[in-house]
Amino acid sequence: MAEPDNALAAQAATITDAIDMSALQLLGVMQAHDGPAALLRSSRGQIARVLVGDEAFGIRITAIGDDRVTLTNRWGQSQALGLPQG
Predict the structure, then answer these.
(1) What is the pLDDT of residue 21?
(2) Taking the CA of residue 74 as centre, how many other CA atoms within 13 Å lie in the half-sphere pointing to its CB?
(3) What is the spatial distance between Cα 52 and Cα 54, in angstroms, rounded to a whole number?
(4) Cβ–Cβ contacts within 10 Å for residue 59, how many?
(5) How would you write 30-62 as a 3-class SS string?
(6) How many degrees, rounded to 5, is the angle at CA 44 between CA 81 and CA 37?
(7) CB 3.0-4.6 Å disulfide test: which of 14, 15, 21, 70 passes with 86?
(8) Nearest one of 40, 31, 25 to 84, comparing CA atoms
(9) 4-57 confidence digits (pLDDT tens)
(10) Is 74 left (phi over 0), alpha (psi -120 to 50) or beta?
């Protein structure tokens, strides 16, 4: 069996421009031992693993679903982030 070409594998596994690097993004959701969790990426490239009720990057996590996270900012405005499509 032939060894896979690393460059070809990386190209197949990468979705170009799948996320806006200048905005808060949802990278993934998972079922953890302590409940539903999500990975968020800030516009500065920081990554946070969050649970419902946590605060990260100045926003509170109010819900975590199969493919989205609902956030509430300090002014009470809610926003939903979905997983990247590709």
Answers:
(1) 79
(2) 3
(3) 6
(4) 20
(5) EEECCEEEEEEECCCCCEEEEECCCEECCEEEE
(6) 40
(7) 15
(8) 25
(9) 677 776 666 566 666 777 889 999 999 989 899 999 999 999 999 999 999 999
(10) alpha
pTM: 0.79
Distances from the Cα of 72 to the Cα of 6, 17, 40, 43, angstroms: 41, 26, 14, 17
Torsion of CA 17, 79, 55, 21, to 10 degrees: 10
Burial class (CB in 10 A: 0-12, 13-18, 19+), 61: buried
Are 53 and 61 in contact by the 8 Å Cβ rule? The answer is yes
Would you say residue 1 has pLDDT above 60? no
Q: What is the pLDDT of residue 26?
A: 95
Written as six digits, the tokens of 20 are 């806006």
Residue 25 is predicted with a pLDDT of 93
Q: Residue 66 has which token pair?
A: 């199969």
